[in-house]
Amino acid sequence: MTSPTTDAPAVRVPDPPGLTQAEAERRLVSHGRNEVSPPRPTPLYSRVLAQLRDPLIMVLLGAALLTLAIGDHPDAVVIGLVIVFNTTVGVAQEVRADRAVAALSALSAPHARVLRDGAAHEVAAALVVPGDTLLLGEGDIVAADADLTEATALLLDESMLTGESEPVDKAAGETVSAGTIVVRGRATVTTTATGPASALGRIAALLDGDREPTPLQRRLASLGRVLAAVTIALCLLFFALGLLRGLPLSTMAVTAISLAVAAVPESLPAVVTLALALGAHRMAARGALVRRLPAVETLGSVSVLATDKTGTLTEGRMVVQHLWTPSGAADVSGSGYAPHGELTRAGRPLTPEELRPLRELLTTAALCNDASLKPPGAGSDTWAAVGDPMEAALLAAAAKAGCPDPAELHRACPRIAEAPFDSLRKRMTTLHHLPDGNVLVCLKGAPEAVLTPTVLAEPPERLDRAREQAASLAAEGFRVLAVAGIERLQWNLPAAEAEQGLHLLGLIAISDPPKAAAAATLAACRDAGITSVLITGDHPATAHAIAARTGLVQDGKSGEVVTGPELAAAPDTDLTAVRVFARTDPQQKLDIVHAWRAHGAVTAMTGDGVNDGPALRQADIGVAMGARGTEVARQAADLVLTDDELGTVVTAVEEGRRVYDNIRRFLVYAMAGGAAEILVMLIGPLLGLALPLRAGQILWINLLTHGLTGMAMGAEPVAPEAMRRPPRPPDQHILAAGVWQRLLVLAAAVTAVSLLAGLAARAMDLPWQSVLFLALLGAQLGVALGLRARLLTRANIFLPASVAGSAALAMAALHVPALQSLLDTEPVGWTGVWLASAAALAAFAAARLLRAAFRRRARS
Fold this sequence. Notes:
- With 860 residues, the chain is of the alpha+beta class.
- It folds into four domains: 11-31 and 113-183 and 193-205, Calcium-transporting ATPase, cytoplasmic transduction domain A (Distorted Sandwich); 48-94 and 212-287 and 651-859, Calcium-transporting ATPase, transmembrane domain; 300-314 and 516-644, 3-Layer(aba) Sandwich (Rossmann fold); 321-510, Calcium-transporting ATPase, cytoplasmic domain N.
- Strand 23, helix 18 (564-569) and strand 24 form a beta-alpha-beta unit.
- 50% of the residues are buried.
């Protein structure tokens, strides 16, 4: 085993000495590495077999066998290429996405400082074992579950485990969990559980279980069964009728098999795969990494978006937004920790006189402060907090008010004593030397710990007014700090003794504010018929305030927030009737997702923490944050947002709807064409056209219409109304909602115009079978253009180009000697071309009129 020690010389530390290196290595063998077991790599053959198990691919394999049986080797090769294309693209996308997620994971691998043989060493967190002594400082990630043996002003960010946005104070004797982050202070801990036995590992264990088929996979499986049954029935009918008319058995067998091949839209898997791959490519360019291709379409089916709060709806950074002093209040603009913004009152800038008490308030808060601000630099283009995020927010607000720079402030007023914040006192006090020799007492803390007569020398009415204001701000979801201070002539007692007789300077309201685009994103979800649900581990008041400010709920309503303990006390609660959940644990998040799915919804769950992992895995679409998300969240998700923006989910939903629309459009086109070919073969003999088409002609039509033209339909741009309609029901058949009707109408139209062209050609003594062949092919190409959502768009030039190419190959079939011989065709002259062109135009007009009629019906 490689030694975990670094090249840097070891630093001796006092007791406790920690484990010996030999004992640590023995425990590593016994307990295993301190990491969540990574998912076993999927073998290539398993990925390929998973693609081949698709129901439509199995139909295609049957079609390939039929074409080989009738000796149609070219068509068998085409079908085989479609199968290979579909499988290759699907496997390649999965492998590419897994590699991208692995790269993100490598960037976040943590380290830990441990005591081994009485010295401190830095080791990979995966090598920490139970019984190790860890040294924690600001910015460290706790490597394992542990007991605190020593703690000094320790503040932990537990949001990745609990969803709680505000850091938590910890003292000696308490426990800490793996995955939490030290934002202030220092500590020594003794590890108690690592790897799967830790809190992080137990949550990750909830990720076990196979993924269920996506809505698209279920719909295509159903379609495959329907197609197989209907095609076999119609072809047997054609075969029997031909025998009754006395046609040769061999001719009818070959033609019936050709019809079966033509009726199956064999390029559908290729169209589906191409549409999904193009959607995944477009989404990656816009900040969304798709881990499984079917997830692209599933996004278009989403009817419920379950989102967490911190870092998703909110910025994930504490910001001062309101100030209150006994002489007046002010709003603070700006975002993040950047010291850029201004103070206003009722929307107007403040006068110097109005600014004076506010600057005194913020100057005191900046002095009673252990944080600092890190300006943009290497690796980051934003200001960052060093230390407690709340204290960093106070420094940013002080800069916006024009207070002196913190470094300059501390040089002018050096700290001489302090009473650190702890969970019992709920306040912090610092003493500073002033240039004139006096001592400045600065205090900040929770309102209930500061707004008392034992701390403040203020009239009762002023204290009552301050308490009312603090309660009002807290009800709006703000973290409220009260700030007080006084200048004394001299002070030689401990800092805690100075916490009396102070003057109230004011209140500071801090929050993790909503992202600028959060309200617009949720509004776009509403317009698209998607129900938004907030699930967080944060405080109920904070959750409700964010939900109200983003428009997720209407402010002023009551009973909208349900907490985890309330759910535990009332397990029969209808989870689908609630829009805001707070103080939830990982199992409850899972229960909420299951409840919506049982209700018939297609769910998308967003999250970044370990606690979100199980719900991300069980939702129809799990959406993880790539930049600030944990490894557990990324591995559980179907979609990883590299920009951490919820608005990217709306973009992804639009792509999903685009993909599904294109698949349905292709189905209308391809199945209408296949049905028309069968109808022509069944009705033609009744009109005196003994054998309307030869087997080779049917397969040539099928190749040209279902080949490049069909695949080009998978790249069509999104329809203008795509995000203004509700999501489709998850149990809706892929041919429902008007697809069957359009398919039948278009099949009838193509059949009618093709037979009319053939009958007209026979009446004019033209080679009617070749005219019918050309008209049937042209009519289907006309339908392909007529079904476009944006008729004259340049967004997909491949469709008109492929239609033109197919038309040229159709003409080649009538004039190239080799094709004439193979397909049994002959030139039709200009009259025959005009008849076929008229059939194509009529089919195009029918498709446009039908699209307009169904759009009017949908709007009404």
